[in-house]
Inverse folding.
């Protein structure tokens, strides 16, 4: 949450930073601000609202400085006001700082600083950092054997800080320098041509450089126009490892689409192809996951998988649970990452952990990973963002290769997680009792998924018409069974997130144990209809709704025949292998939510109160 962009180089920092902030805006969009070093001082511009408002304000100022820091905010401490927007200045004007994260001991630090004569202009936890750095800067000698004065002042400040941070700091007494540091909040250094950038997300850097250094927790970088050094808080030098970002700039651009969410929904066939590329075994009966670093013998020892994640990723875990238990017959436990880390669950000796995260930066998921590792378990990651903290800290994993996902509402990352889950279920099933012939049929079924997804997307105009008719309702139920129950949860989450409509996901048969009380002409139900043995049961649930005058939108495979007049609206999806059904059923619920949100004039890519990646607890 929140985005940081900093720059030291030869170009106008403000222009470069605003371009970077625009790419980061999906991380938080309450307010935005920047500070540049120029004419021996700091010029700060900040405002409530979007980056566009900041750009407008900045255009009216003469911002020629070539070093700067900037921020787009998702409020934690303190309301959405100009004063609470970043950058924050120390009260002596010697330090400007932007911050992602939460300073937990800010009250104690503030008390101390007030006794030293520092003042506060905002309600944020961040401002204590600016003042504490100024305090240390004032005390720091010019030629300390411990290294550069500015770096030391930041370092000494961070030794007193509890909580999480990604920070970038400027000081007018140290022109053309920038110090940045991280603990629990991502930060990446971009190494360009005679310029350096710091950002909380690679998407802000890729238009200027593809060479990056991923900072680790406890590391500080000191950037000058001539180069940079990497240190730890206890002054150890670190040799930087420069990685190459493989994303192309245009992958993170809208192109002809009105919203990233729609673009990413339509990118799903490609994302699904990327997820499966090179991952089927040569004999066509199983999958391969080299990145797990585990042999078949290792898998034989495992008697339980534990999957943890948050939000949409947690729904993917539920599908993984269903498929692994169904095909591989190995017990699976699914936990919210935020709960797992605190509930001290008793665990089997031979459990293998998986965390699922698009961004690889979600703090609760990262904490769950660390907790599992602390207890001595191997922990794998299913992750989209290469080089993210979770990807780096996991013992092994599976990259999704879905490309950048910018829309706050996760779409292509989710179906790619579903596909990887179904491939993983096959992988372990083939090490156990799934026959060669069944494996071959399973692989053939999954190989068809990208094409079937293209066909499912052809329903978009029909779904749009339905959405226009249903956009006026304020309550929805989403109902499904077995592997389609998580898709009901996901459909309800999507609708809540982007259209602010109250929606609940339930196992279809549970509906009569309570939620049926909600049914009326004013509360439509979206049914995810399966084929096979549960078809008739789901039809019975639909009849129960119909008997109470409830409206029904049915999403059903091509070949099923619903009783005449039962569904008010029918959206078909192509027939497919059972392991692929959750993927194809997801596409209509995404489109339905999208078109309803658009009809209600909601800001689809920047829904209120949300941010793409939740890096605070
Ligand atoms: O980046 P992650 O997959 O770890 O994010 C987890 C959730 O925050 C995320 O899925 C969230 O629920 C999305 N807004 C869903 O659309």
């Amino acid at each position: 949450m929140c985005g940081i962009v900093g720059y030291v180089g030869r170009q106008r920092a403000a222009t470069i930073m605003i371009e970077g902030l625009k790419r980061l805006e999906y991380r938080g969009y309450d307010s935005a601000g920047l500070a540049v070093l120029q004419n021996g001082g700091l010029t700060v511009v900040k405002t409530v609202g979007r980056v566009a408002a900041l750009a407008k304000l900045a255009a009216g100022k003469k911002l020629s400085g070539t070093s700067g820091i900037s921020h787009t905010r998702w409020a934690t401490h303190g309301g959405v006001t100009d004063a609470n927007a970043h950058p924050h200045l120390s009260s002596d004007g010697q330090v400007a700082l932007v911050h992602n994260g939460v300073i937990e001991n800010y009250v104690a630090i503030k008390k101390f600083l007030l006794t030293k004569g520092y003042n506060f202009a905002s309600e944020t936890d961040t401002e204590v950092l600016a003042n504490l750095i100024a305090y240390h800067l004032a005390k720091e000698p010019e030629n300390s054997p411990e290294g550069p004065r500015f770096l030391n002042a930041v370092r000494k400040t961070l030794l007193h800080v509890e909580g999480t941070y990604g920070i970038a700091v400027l000081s007018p007494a140290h022109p053309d320098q920038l110090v940045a540091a991280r603990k629990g909040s991502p930060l990446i250094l971009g190494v360009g041509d005679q310029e350096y950038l710091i950002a909380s997300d690679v998407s802000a850097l890729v238009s200027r450089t593809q060479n990056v250094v991923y900072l680790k927790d406890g590391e500080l970088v000191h950037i000058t126009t001539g180069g940079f050094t990497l240190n730890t808080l206890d002054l150890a030098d670190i040799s930087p490892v420069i990685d190459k970002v493989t994303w192309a700039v245009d992958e993170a651009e809208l192109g002809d689409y009105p919203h990233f969410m729609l673009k990413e929904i339509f990118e799903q066939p490609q994302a699904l192809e990327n997820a499966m590329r090179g991952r089927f075994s040569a004999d066509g009966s199983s999958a391969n996951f080299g990145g797990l670093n585990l042999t078949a013998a290792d898998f034989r020892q495992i008697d339980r998988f534990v999957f943890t994640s948050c939000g949409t990723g947690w729904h993917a875990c539920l599908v993984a649970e269903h498929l692994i238990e169904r095909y591989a017959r190995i017990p699976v436990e699914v936990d919210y990452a935020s709960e797992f880390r605190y509930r001290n669950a008793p665990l089997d000796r031979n459990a293998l952990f998986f965390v699922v995260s698009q961004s690889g930066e979600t703090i609760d998921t990262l904490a769950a990973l660390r907790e599992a590792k602390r207890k001595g378990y191997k922990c794998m990651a299913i992750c989209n963002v290469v080089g993210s903290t979770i990807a780096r800290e996991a013992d092994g994993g599976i990259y999704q290769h879905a490309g950048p996902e910018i829309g706050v509402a996760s779409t292509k990352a989710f179906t790619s997680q579903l596909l990887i889950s179904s491939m993983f279920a096959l992988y372990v099933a083939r090490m156990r009792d799934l026959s060669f012939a069944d494996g071959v049929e399973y692989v053939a079924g999954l190989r068809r998924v990208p094409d079937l997804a293209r066909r499912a997307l052809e329903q978009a105009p029909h779904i749009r018409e339905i959405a226009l008719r249903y956009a006026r309702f304020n309550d929805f139920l989403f109902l499904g069974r077995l592997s389609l129950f998580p898709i009901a949860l996901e459909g309800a989450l999507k609708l809540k997130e982007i259209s602010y409509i109250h929606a609940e996901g339930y196992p279809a048969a549970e509906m009569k144990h309570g939620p049926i009380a909600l049914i009326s002409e004013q509360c439509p139900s979206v049914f995810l209809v399966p084929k096979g043995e549960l078809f008739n049961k789901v039809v019975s649930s639909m009849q129960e709704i119909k008997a109470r005058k409830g409206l029904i939108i049915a999403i059903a495979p091509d070949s099923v025949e619903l009783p005449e007049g039962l569904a008010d609206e029918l959206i078909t999806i192509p027939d497919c292998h059972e392991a692929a059904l959750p993927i194809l059923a997801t596409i209509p619920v995404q489109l339905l939510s999208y078109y309803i949100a658009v009809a209600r004039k909601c800001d689809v890519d920047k829904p209120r109160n949300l941010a793409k990646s939740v890096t605070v607890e």
User: Anything to note?
Assistant: Residues 310-313, 357-359, 362, 365, 408-410, 497, 610, 613-614 surround 5-amino-5-deoxy-1-O-phosphono-D-mannitol (CB under 6 Å). The first strand starts at residue 3 and ends at 8. The chain has three domains: 3-250, 254-447, 456-617. Residues 456-617 form a domain with the Rossmann fold fold (CATH 3.40.50.10490).
